[in-house]
Amino acid sequence: MPHATRTPPASFRLNTGAEIPSVGLGTWQAKPGEVAAAVTHALKAGYRHIDGALIYQNEEEVGQGIRASGVPRSDIFLTSKLWNTYHDKVEQCLDESLASLGVDYLDLYLIHWPVRLVPNESSKLLPVNPDGSRAVDRHWPMSKTWAAMEALLATGKVKAIGVSNWSIPYLEELEKTWTVVPAVNQVELHPFNPQHELKAWCDKRGILMEAYCPLGSTNSPLLSDPELNAIADKHSVSPATVLISYQPQRGCVVLPKSVSPARIDANLELITLDEEDMETLDGMAAKGKQQRVNTPLFGWDLGFDDWYPEQIKHKLANGGYRKTW
Ligand SMILES: NC(=O)c1ccc[n+]([C@@H]2O[C@H](COP(=O)([O-])OP(=O)(O)OC[C@H]3O[C@@H](n4cnc5c(N)ncnc54)[C@H](OP(=O)(O)O)[C@@H]3O)[C@@H](O)[C@H]2O)c1
């Protein structure tokens, strides 16, 4: 995976022509009472890119944080995501996010997962069947959701559209009907899950990859990795700085989440990794460290990973599997 040694770019260009800052503040699991202050601090510190979603249930506070920062809306790249229970009401979901955020457009709107969940009396957002499994609609064509996303562009309420959590088979299927190529595919990316093949597929079609969980998320299994720490020591920076710098240098937007002012500041400081560092980081998963940290229960039989119900039950019972959705 050859990489030219170069300073990580401060921004990328989407296939729409718009510029997107290469580091964005993540807002998932930023608790109520924390996220507004984090967003304000980040914008004052120089961030110009915020990544949110309806399912994070904190968009109102994200909007408050934006307004409190004094940074003009037009200077901020703002992303939200269509939640799984809204595949049949795409514009309604967008309108709910716009109202919560208190803005009249998004710079980027993503389909959060290629999965439709059917809301029922158990929940509007995370419905389950009587047996406890997620209420997945297995027959909903994603081409229909994407067509509704394409139609949003004409409303002016979104400047660009994209997808999230789409693997190659899902993208190949969508490619048969899309009239607008997704601007972005936001997926889990870090050295334990580099998704080189998916990145090559997206690069070829001008789809920019965005790295979520770049630090390995809460209770990260990455930060203590010896190879990562050796690279950090070599450059006299933290392992987090290496993980964040790695993504823009390989050509991906990076979305670290923090609610700590000091870490928000630190996460904006990128370094230039050398060829050897990049090779090490690129090769870690192939050496046996492959691991996903975000494995939702609606994904086990939908081709996102190799989990089967018995394995999930076993892992949950033994504390070895983190239930994220
Ligand atoms: N599209 C999707 O399906 C999807 C899924 C997951 C995530 N995302 C997006 O990607 C963003 C990032 O993912 P994530 O929030 O799961 O995980 P992450 O950014 O990989 O990690 C966040 C964790 O790392 C800690 N942290 C932050 N900066 C640090 C530093 N410099 N040193 C050590 N620890 C640090 C944070 O704690 P503190 O807050 O206390 O600093 C938090 O516990 C999300 O917030 C969300 O916007 C999207």
Fraction of residues in β-strands:
5-15%
CATH homologous superfamily title of the largest domain = NADP-dependent oxidoreductase domain
Global outline: globular
> What is the CATH fold-level name of the largest domain?
TIM Barrel
Order of helices and strands: EEEHEHEHEEEHEHEHEHHEHHH
Characterize the main sheet: 8 strands, parallel
Q: Based on the coordinates given, report the CATH architecture of the largest domain.
A: Alpha-Beta Barrel
Oligomer: single chain
Total number of domains: 2
Explain what this protein looks like in three dimensions.
- Helix 7 (226-235) packs across helix 8.
- This protein has two domains: 11-286, Alpha-Beta Barrel (TIM Barrel), CATH 3.20.20; 295-325, no CATH class.
- The chain is built from eleven helices and twelve strands.
- The protein has helices at residues 35-45, 59-69, 90-101, 142-152, 168-175, 196-204, 226-235, 239-250, 261-266, 275-283, 309-317, and strands at residues 11-13, 19-21, 25-26, 49-51, 77-82, 108-111, 116-117, 136-137, 161-164, 184-188, 208-212, 253-254.
- The chain has 325 residues and is an alpha/beta fold.
- Helix content is 33%, strand content 13%.
- It has an eight-stranded parallel β-sheet with strand order 3-4-5-6-9-10-11-12. Strands 1-2 form a two-stranded antiparallel sheet. The chain has a two-stranded antiparallel sheet with strand order 7-8.
- Helix 1 links the parallel strand 3 and strand 4.
- The protein binds NADP nicotinamide-adenine-dinucleotide phosphate (NAP).
- NADP nicotinamide-adenine-dinucleotide phosphate (NAP) is lined by residues 26-29, 51, 112, 164-165, 186, 212-218, 238, 240, 255-260, 263, 266-267, 294.
